[in-house]
């Protein structure tokens, strides 16, 4: 799925098609694979080793799409095209499937005059409702809602990661202080 999305992105943006290289390690009876995808002059590596080549290539393509989508719509041509392809909707669906949550549910609201409607979309994921920017059509409103959800979830994940590392640092500092007072 991720390889297809990355290839579609390359075709829409007139980039060269992604190319994959693979590293194989381990014994013949239990090989492990790691892939690197070259996309528009950038290299993206699968974050972990996989049990087969296909999984490693998909993992590298996923890393590329996530990295490109995190740059936001105004930072590059690739990011703008990611908006157009609706990759955020696909990423939300993948997240829901991974965590066993119901699939995202989209709702759109129409406002404005008949000849110039304005659509606002929301997406409900894991009990949380995310609202996107206003759009000229229903499809774009859903994409904006998915983008808003993706960016919010990414920000929450970064906050959780930083707060858990702060907690670990505080725990370690407390342990050091306790051990010093005992000596």
Task: Summarize the structure in words.
- There is one protein chain.
- With 183 residues, the chain is of the alpha+beta class.
- It folds into two domains: 85 residues, Double Stranded RNA Binding Domain; 76 residues, Double Stranded RNA Binding Domain (2-Layer Sandwich).
- The protein has five helices and six strands; from the N terminus they run αβββαααβββα.
- The strands form two sheets. A three-stranded antiparallel β-sheet has the order 1-2-3, covered by helices on one side.
- Helix 1 packs across helix 2, helix 1 packs across helix 3 and helix 4 packs across helix 5.
- The protein starts with a helix and ends with a helix.
- The C terminus is likely disordered.
- Keywords: Repeat, RNA-binding.
- This is DRBM domain-containing protein.
Write down the overall mean pLDDT: 80
Order of helices and strands: HEEEHHHEEEH
Q: Which stretches are low in confidence, meaning pLDDT under 50 for 5 or more residues running?
A: 175-183
Structural class: alpha+beta
**Main sheet strand line-up:** 1-2-3
Number of helices: 5
The domain tally reads 2
Say what the CATH topology of the largest domain is: Double Stranded RNA Binding Domain
Helix content: 40-55%
Please give the largest β-sheet.
3 strands, antiparallel
* CATH class assignment of the largest domain: Alpha Beta
Rg (C-alpha, Å): 21 Å
Strand proportion, as a percent range, falls in: 15-25%
Q: Tell me the total number of β-strands.
A: 6
Assigned CATH architecture of the largest domain: 2-Layer Sandwich
N-end to C-end Cα span: 58 Å
Task: Based on Cα principal axes, name the global outline.
Answer: globular
Protein name: DRBM domain-containing protein
Domain DRBM: 1-70, 87-155
Pfam families: dsrm
Region (Disordered): 160-183
């Amino acid at each position: 799925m991720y390889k297809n999305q990355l290839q579609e992105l390359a075709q829409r943006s007139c980039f060269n098609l992604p190319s994959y290289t693979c590293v194989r390690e381990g014994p013949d009876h239990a090989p492990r694979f790691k892939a690197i995808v070259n996309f528009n002059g950038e290299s993206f590596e699968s974050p972990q080793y996989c049990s087969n080549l296909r999984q490693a290539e998909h993992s590298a393509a996923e890393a590329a799409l996530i990295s490109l989508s995190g740059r936001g719509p105004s930072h590059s041509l690739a990011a703008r095209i990611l908006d157009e392809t609706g990759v955020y909707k696909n990423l939300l669906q993948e997240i829901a499937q991974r965590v066993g949550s119901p699939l995202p549910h989209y709702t759109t609201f129409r406002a404005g005059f008949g000849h110039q409607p304005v659509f606002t979309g929301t997406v409900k994921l894991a009990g949380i409702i995310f609202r996107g920017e206003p759009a000229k059509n229903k499809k774009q409103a859903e994409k904006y809602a998915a983008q808003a959800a993706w960016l919010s979830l990414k920000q929450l994940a970064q906050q959780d990661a930083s707060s858990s590392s702060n907690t670990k640092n505080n725990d370690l500092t407390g342990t050091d202080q306790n051990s010093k007072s005992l000596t």
